[in-house]
Design a protein that fits this description.
This protein has about 180 residues and is an alpha/beta fold. It has one domain: Rossmann fold (3-Layer(aba) Sandwich). Helices cover about 40% and strands about 20% of the residues. The protein has a 7-stranded mixed beta sheet, with helices on both faces. Helix 4 packs across helix 6. It starts with a strand and ends in a 10-residue tail after the last strand.
Length: about 180
């Protein structure tokens, strides 16, 4: 199994920038798997900013729903694929499957089954969404629960897990026999 690194944290905590830095500093052949969809002008601006931050240093695959298939489409010789972002992907699944939690969970479970089998390292970016108030509606609670489940199961498979807090990466799970990327 190749290395899986999970990067989590709150909104705008620096997760994506940290993930890009990890990929740039440690790999030459990189793929970026983008899950966001430009539904509105604000999202278009966010996507454009992410594209600018990546520059031409990544080959980009855009896949908002079929993430497992996107992992199979990563070109041979790729050293690392950076997936940004798992919680955006979950939101896309809820939209695509008309809020059917069973269908969403099925895709999440398939993704979790496949990630240890890829032939390249993975950097997965996600959000911590369950640290606040319990949502007041069933859909939001379902989303929170599925995101928490995916994050927990991805962390179990990961060799390294980073929590970004106020732009500061905290390594909460280290690779066995490795003291971290920045030592």
């Amino acid at each position: 199994m190749k290395s899986i690194t999970l990067i989590t944290g709150g909104a705008r905590s620096g997760k994506s920038s940290f993930a890009l830095d990890l990929a740039r500093k440690n790999y030459d052949r990189r793929v970026f798997i983008a899950t966001a969809v430009a539904f509105d002008e604000e999202m278009k601006r966010r996507i454009a900013q992410h594209q600018k931050e990546r520059g031409g240093l990544f080959q980009t695959l855009e896949e908002p729903v079929q993430l497992t298939e996107a992992l199979s489409a990563v070109p041979p010789g790729t050293e690392v694929a950076l997936v940004d972002c798992l919680t955006v992907w979950i939101g896309n699944l809820y939209h695509h499957f008309q809020q059917n939690e069973a269908a969403v969970r099925s895709h999440v479970d398939e993704f979790l089954k496949v990630i240890p089998q890829v032939s390249y390292d993975l950097i997965l970016v996600t959000n911590e969404v369950g640290w606040g108030i319990v949502p007041d509606n069933p859909l939001a609670r379902s989303f929170r629960d599925v995101a928490g489940y995916l994050n927990r199961k991805a962390a179990e498979r990961a060799k390294s897990v980073y929590l970004l807090c106020c732009g500061i990466p905290l390594e909460v799970k280290k690779r066995a026999g490795h003291s971290g990327f920045f030592t």
